[in-house]
Amino acid sequence: MTVKTIDQPGKLVEQAGDSKEANEPAVSQGNLVLAGVGGQGIIMASNIISLACLESGLDVKKSEVHGMSQRGGTVVSHVRFGHEVHSVMLEPKQAEWIIGLEWEEGLRFLEYLKPGGVAFMSTERRIPPTAFADRLGGKIDYALGAGVPRGVVPVDTYAVAGEAAAERPVIAQTVLLGALSVDMGLSQETWREAIAATVPPKAVQANLIAFENGRAWYERWKKTTGSKPGSSIKANDIQRPEGVSPGAFRAGGFNGPDVSVKDWRGGMPRIEVLRDWCKGCNICVIVCPERVLSLDRFDIVVASEPDRCTACGLCARLCPDMAIEIWVDTPAHAGTGGE
Amino acid sequence: MKMVAGTEPGNGSSASAGANGDNGRKRSGGTPVVAVAPAGNGSIAHSRHQALLSGNEAIGLAAWHAGADMAVGYPGTPSTEVLEYIAKITPESDIYVEWSTNEKVAMDVAMGASLAGKRVIVTTKHVGLNVALDSLMTSPFIGVNGGVVVFNADDPGMHSSQNEQDNRYIARFAGIPLLEPSDSQEAYDFTRAGFGVSEQWDTPVILRTTTRTSHALSRVIASPAEQHRSGEFRRDPRKYVMLPANARPRHVAHLERLSRMERWAEEAPFNREELRSKSIGVIASGMSYQYVRDVLPHASVFKLGLTFPLPKESLTNFASKVDRLFVVEELEPYLEEALKLLGVPVEGKEFFPRYGELSPHLVRVGFQAAGILEPSGETAGETAGSVAGPSIDPVGPRFPLLCSGCSHATTFFVLRELDAVVTGDIGCYTLGATDPLSAMDTCLSMGSSVGMAVGLAKAGSTGGRPVVAVLGDSTFLHAGIPPLIDAVHREANLTVVILDNGTTAMTGGQPNPANAVDIRGGSVPKVDIPAICKAIGVASLAVVDPYDVGATRRAIENAISKDGVSVVVTVRACAESPEKIRGPVYYVDIDSCDGCQLCMNLGCPALVWDLSLDVMPKRVRIDATLCSGCTVCAQICPQGAIFASSSQLVTASTASTGVSVSSNQGGRQ
Prior knowledge:
The complex is a heterodimer. In chain A, α1 crosses α5 (about 190-200) and α4 (about 170-185) crosses α6. In chain A, α2 links the parallel β6 (about 95-100) and β7. Chain A is about 25% helix and about 20% strand. Chain A has helices at about 40-55, 105-110, 155-160, 170-185, 190-200, 205-225, 260-265, 285, 315-320; strands spanning about 1-5, 10-15, 30-35, 60-65, 75-80, 95-100, 115-120, 150-155, 270-275, 295, 300-305, 325. The radius of gyration of chain A is 27 Å and the shape is elongated. Chain B has four domains: about 45-235, Rossmann fold (3-Layer(aba) Sandwich); about 270-370, Rossmann fold (3-Layer(aba) Sandwich), CATH 3.40.50; about 410-570, Rossmann fold (3-Layer(aba) Sandwich), CATH 3.40.50.970; about 580-669, Alpha-Beta Plaits, CATH 3.30.70.20. Chain B is built from 20 helices and 24 strands. Chain B is of the alpha/beta class. Classes of the chains: A alpha/beta, B alpha/beta. The interface between A and B is large, with 102 and 108 residues. β2 (about 10-15) of chain A pairs antiparallel with β3 of chain B.
């Protein structure tokens, strides 16, 4: 079989004369959902699967949505293969397999998993910046808990990739594809050729190693766990987000200390404006990160949104006239922030 | 590259519809069997070639194989990849590819080339066809010499659009034949056939896809390529010059043609009747057909590939063969209304939504509501917990964001500070409306930021807040110039900020007329945006680097203070462009950061909470893998706590406030 590409994802296949019948796949039809964060290689991974199916003589369709393609959004791809495929999209509970390149994105699409299906999910976590909106309470809007739902095989992709992990960005996907290949069938040679035709040339070797390591890891994993995804995983198996202290993980989910400003400051912040000293220069209004302050009709600063104040003290510190004081329990003047 | 299936010019194979699409597969009995051609089957040489292509790539390949001489369009999701694919796989000498200034320009370029005897494909998204509509409506009066296929991609569900209009109505409105493929193979076949239909009926043809058909990949088997057409322009003023006296007889001819096309539609090879169960019949086209085949595999289906004009007799005939008849269609009840006008009893929109994207699941739910399918355990009655187990965590949202190092962030940061009424436009920068930037008040359509700003300024009731229009370089050239002329001529008091990042970023970085390169990377003359503004008569004009926060703030503040029309052009390459300047990665000095999180108001994805510290308020950490080194956060940090990783001190000299914030004012020094 020869594989020729007409563009980067390597989509065009020229079938040479050899017989495909000898290469009958172990699984003749199936459905997959691949999910992750933009830039993680979702589309490349689904291209590899589709190409491997096509080369195995199967009909295959694949769907994803591009467009609002700024970095950081959710990317999901559906792949369906069989002797004849109609719809490009799955219904919930139709996927035999889910590939999650990011932990929370895997969870997001778990509703597509068929009962008895397997979700191979990277334990890598990418917390989106929008999860950090609660500046007062410090709650993180992200699934940080350590629970592993039924059907999920958590994979520490970088650890499994081993020496291939030096080329991280393109490795996690092929580790998961290696695990998938154990259950999905298709010949090893077909998988390898599909990878070689799809990933950038200089990354082929590392990806092939990662694929083998992923495959070997899952075969071992099936033996040791008795092939029950999600049944015998300990919380510690889930990789912590980068930079999170071990103590931050708690059973049942970590969502930041469940406290209000009042708790961590010892009292609600109180903004006191010395009206006689304020000359309405507007500096504090502009610098306040939470947009708490405004000028009143006399051009004197007032706290118009006092509930949003985090007592950071920036206004007090930058006031040229020292007209603002932030009080919590004790007067928390500029810079000390009440700590 | 010559390895693309069927690139060799064929032996004059016809472009007529029936000649294409049969290679290597059967279509009898309503079950198209797409099989890999067995080795040694030499009957059709090219049938051994197959490719996995998206609908858009298949359309691009087909246009090339159909001998098209020209491909023109304006980028717009989900239509963009057609021209990009043509530019990628074809030699420059073979086909002229152009990102036009806007869709109307593209349509006009196409009509000109067609009259010169060339085959042309025009590409646009659904709302882009609105821009081209002026020319499109009259184009069937003029007709074609070389075939014109207008590729239109609708976006049900608004994955990347401001509305989800159903452009099948535009085809009916203009009286233009409408082809709707349901997978990549049909996208290829219908595109190739479309040129023939266009020439046969002397009118442009609309090829309509939806996001799913355009972006889904499936197998394509190509057929032998055709030679380019030979032809040249010949004068024919009575047909080409639409003076009223000429247009009147052309309208009559147009209507006569419509009635002849209706008869042709009955036999056209784009439609097929698949008889199975007599109890249920479904009429569907495009991706809806595929969903129906999955959800109701035993139903009889009339699959429409030609949805204007409709084969009325065949549809009526089909209706008589089944007990209960449904129409399954995305968006508007276009087919349903047409069938009801024919007096055919049909059910549809009472079970299937008129908004959003259809899915196999929604088709199933619709047929369950109609009593055709029993609610089954597979889709109903189970809670998520029973499958996923009890320990699933709540999943937070993950929205698209402006990139780290995005040159637009500073502008919105400043506009929010200045409390301006900001009319926005179509592009990446529409994300300036989202938290935490929250600095955009309107977004209507391409170029409308400037016109709406004129309206707001003339209305004079913005509570004293300045009026600022914000739009990108490509959008400005597309539709922002006429309203700027209006603003200057009518002496409106407003500021226009042109965010010039040197590309059409939202759709993936296509060149526009303000760039010195074209779609093939060739060198072309570039249009000078500040010079255009000057020529229009803008008195106050400033060009500024948005990576300089202080300068940007002063420029915009100064522009706002001026009477009349002022323009600020912010020039900095898109963070995703190849020429981006990646400086040293920045980091937060944890001893200096006091957690004010002012920097996080930029909405930069690289700025996150530092979770290694158990303190409140949360300190900020810079994700080194995402930081582009743009320096903007370091410039605005009141503590001077953000430094380049090479350890040199960044002087947070002039923050956006215009206030001098030197680092010795930090809390802990």
